[in-house]
Design goal:
This protein has about 425 residues and is an alpha/beta fold. The protein has two domains: about 120 residues, no CATH class; about 230 residues, TIM Barrel (Alpha-Beta Barrel), CATH 3.20.20. Helices cover about 25% and strands about 15% of the residues. It has 13 helices and 14 strands. Strands 3-4-5-6-7-8-9-10-11 form a nine-stranded mixed beta sheet. A three-stranded antiparallel beta sheet has the order 12-13-14, with no helix packed on it. α12 packs across α13. The longest helix has 13 residues. The termini are far apart.
Length: about 425
């Protein structure tokens, strides 16, 4: 049987718990969305199957017009307009959401430490009345940000410690992280780089870019570049083309990985000109950051389609966030939608020990339970790797439920997802 929830979502579980009934996490499309993805026309040779278009609804632009006035379709599709018209102050969201007292207080007390910035597109996905909306929790300041625990760290992954030159973190033998900008379209409230993202004093100048490129050129062991920020897609096509061309000219550099959340918060950034530029630098891998099915809109579908058609391999790095996606059904729905968008679920990250995000952290057991409910219950393509990025720069440590029941001599007793046991004998 299935059970119909608020706003028309159907929970496809045989015995869905009553918690589905009024839990805002289970609203998987914007309640004001009225148009699905059937108007996307990628051409006769790359059709989008019509039977899943209803799972990808267009962002409701009309929601934003209550705050910004009439917005033309041309403006809405212009990523630069979206950047210019970001909501930077809490009172600008009047009409878009019913701002709670806690959200007002949190903005007043936290904005000096970490700015608010929300694109009109992303703001249109918010639930008007519910401050626990997964989109609001990720983008509007929360009172939990003001609590700094003794275990919180300013630089939890020790990225600054492992910087041989400004803008390059070199921890692993054959790859580096290349910090290219401080800017993002939306300043995520769970950001692990709050110490520098949104802070103009950390802006990456042209001289720093040149120093970083020279370091990479002078270090033959580097074959893989993670281009990050901020969000590198905040840069112009011309600036990105220069960076990618300079890296591609280095003989020992094999691949690029671009870390971007624009596909989630500003999919209009993926223009025809942008993907044409990327085609000249393949192989290019794109790692993005969808955290909830509500973010899987028709616009996001189209942006991912454009990148995939340009030859990019797209992976998703979900962060496990309390109140947003800490339920296996949400994660499974997200991963199923991502696969339809030609995005491979890659990692589930345990929330870092960054300052001011402890209210988002779950126990590790929650992540392990999600993995338990995914493995075997859905296709392997929809099962990412659950990792802790170890504090202090220890790197990613994968975690799995225990599947070895007993190991005696050459016999191992293993269990599967149905809790059935099987004996395997080593040679």
């Amino acid at each position: 049987m299935s059970k119909t929830l608020e706003y028309g979502y159907t929970c496809e579980n045989k015995t869905p718990p009553e918690s589905c009934n009024n839990d805002i996490r289970f609203v998987y499309n914007s309640v004001d969305a009225i148009k699905n993805a059937s108007d996307i026309n990628p051409g006769p040779h790359r059709p989008i199957p019509k039977h899943f278009c209803d799972r990808f609804m267009h962002a409701p632009k009309a929601r934003i017009e209550k705050a910004l006035g009439v917005v033309s379709d041309q403006e809405w599709q212009d990523w630069r307009w979206q950047q210019r018209r970001r909501f930077r102050f809490i009172n600008q969201l009047e009409g878009v959401i019913n701002i709670s007292h806690g959200e007002r207080m949190a903005f007043e007390k936290s904005n000096a430490m970490f700015n608010m910035g929300i694109t009109p597109y992303y703001a249109s996905l918010m639930d008007y009345d519910n401050p626990n909306c997964p989109i609001r929790l990720q983008s509007v300041p929360q009172m939990g940000e003001l609590e700094i625990l003794a275990t919180d760290l300013e630089d939890p992954l020790a990225e600054e410690r492992d910087m041989p030159v400004p803008g390059i973190t070199h921890r692993y033998p054959d790859r580096v992280l290349f910090y290219t900008t401080h800017n993002c379209p939306v300043y995520c409230r769970h950001c692990t780089r709050k110490r520098k993202v949104a802070d103009p004093s950390t802006m990456t100048a042209k001289e720093q870019i040149e120093i970083a490129i020279k370091y990479i050129a002078d270090t033959p062991s580097i074959r893989d570049i993670v281009i990050s920020g901020g969000d590198p897609l905040s840069l112009s096509d011309e600036r990105l083309d220069y960076i990618l061309s300079s890296l591609r000219a280095i003989p020992h550099v094999e691949i690029f990985r671009m870390g971007t959340r624009n596909l989630v918060t500003l999919p209009q950034r993926v223009t025809d000109d942008f993907v044409y530029m990327l085609k000249n630098h393949q192989p290019v891998f794109v790692n993005t950051h969808f955290n909830h099915p509500k973010e899987c809109t028709a616009e996001a579908l189209d942006a991912c389609r454009r990148l995939a058609d340009a030859g990019c391999v797209i992976g998703n790095q979900m962060v496990l966030l309390k109140g947003v996606n800490d339920d296996y059904r949400i994660v499974k729905e997200l991963n199923h939608r991502l696969l339809l968008m030609r995005v491979r679920p890659y990692y589930i990250y345990q929330c870092d020990l960054s300052q001011g995000i402890s209210h988002f952290r779950t126990p590790l057991s929650v992540g392990l339970e999600i993995m338990e409910k995914l493995r075997g219950h859905t296709s392997g393509l929809a099962v990412p790797t659950f990792v802790v990025d170890a504090p202090g720069g220890g790197g990613k440590i994968p975690l799995l439920p225990e599947y070895i029941v007993k190991h005696e001599g050459k016999e191992l007793v293993l269990r599967n997802y149905q809790q059935r046991t099987f004996s395997y004998f080593e040679p």
